[in-house]
Design brief:
Elements: H1 6-13, H2 16-29, H3 34-58, H4 62-69, H5 73-109, H6 115-131, H7 135-160, H8 164-169, H9 180-188, H10 193-207, H11 213-246, H12 259-262, H13 264-267, H14 270-301, H15 311-330, H16 335-360, H17 363-366, H18 373-397
Helix pairs in contact: 1-7, 1-10, 1-11, 1-14, 2-9, 2-11, 3-9, 3-10, 3-11, 3-16, 4-14, 5-6, 5-14, 5-15, 5-16, 6-14, 6-15, 7-11, 7-14, 10-14, 14-15, 16-18
Protein name: Protein Malvolio
GO molecular function: cadmium ion transmembrane transporter activity; manganese ion transmembrane transporter activity; symporter activity
Membrane topology: Multi-pass membrane protein
Amino acid sequence: MRFGAGLLVTAAFIGPGTITTASVAGANFGFALLWTLLFSVIATIVLQGMAARLGIVTGLDLAQALRKHIHQPLFRYLAGFLVISAIGIGSAAYEAGNLTGASLGLIGLFPDSEHYYWTPVIALISAALLWTGKHKLVENALIGLVLIMSLVFITTMVMAGPDLGALMAGFVPSIPEGSLTTVLALIGTTIVPYNLFLHSGVLASQARHTEDKTRAVTHANWDTGLSVGLGGLITLAILSTASVAFFGQQVNSLSAATIAHQLEPLLGESAQYFFAVGLFAAGLTSAITAPLAGAYAVCGMLGWSNDMKNTRFRLVALFILIFGAVVASLGLDPFAVIIFAQATNGVLLPVVTFYLVWLVNSRKVMQEQTNGLGLNLLLIPIVLLITGLSIYKLVSLV
């Protein structure tokens, strides 16, 4: 069994934001929130597995499936607005953070340099890779970067030497005082809406050349479980390292830029360089996958081709990348755009989840590959969680 498209999901959700969120969770609450991570990983495997199966069986990505099967024009236009706003515009807004994170990683390796030197270089590398339109090339590059992240962060955790008993106790559900926002942030940084569009889009493109759909679905299920599980392990390693290093201490602030420096007392001077490699890999993987996901979502909802070599597809991905590069290079604050994207994401996630569940339970759409009873029962708490998370996000924004 080899890694495949599922690793793009891991590449997408392990970014600078996840590093910061997991570090804050470990620093402020020790191992107490590990159960949240476990739940998030299970929920992500279930949802991404359904999106992957939809792409393989129908040959449509999630955006195309929504456009095709929402027959009421008003609802179709509303879905299109939400998808383009949340995924397309949202990807552009978050791209600045991805490029900045990758730049900070390189600054950690080359301390005398400035981020505005590195941001255009990283953007050009990402653009060149996406412009090739070659699935395998992009996939292999991301697999390499994710494996680098895995090596860096898991080795860092082993060097930190967490208490295994305390670590295992963290899988028992509890919500320490003041931890609710962190719980929701940890869930939100793992269950990422645009990954549903990205995963289904890549596999839908590959499925056009696949005759044995059943075998492809089986492979995708294993790939999704292993890939997302690996992403969960990386997040666990980051959270555990922060817990050992910072829990119970007075740490003024944690960010992707300062964590490496603050780890030096625990791991020595090499920590800065070691962690910087992981931060660079995390930023670069997200910088590549965000434009890709945005292009699948926008092109699918507008009825355009989702072929990576299609000119419109390339231009949408390039626009998202350029927007992020400009914001990151000039030090602009995309606050208003991010708030808008978060608000539309808050509405979109439960809507898309409901539609995804409906699609993969429709025999007309999925033929023999519909959900089983056990999977649908497992979906109940996941759907309730997603709905609650979205409501909380919208209320907090208001």
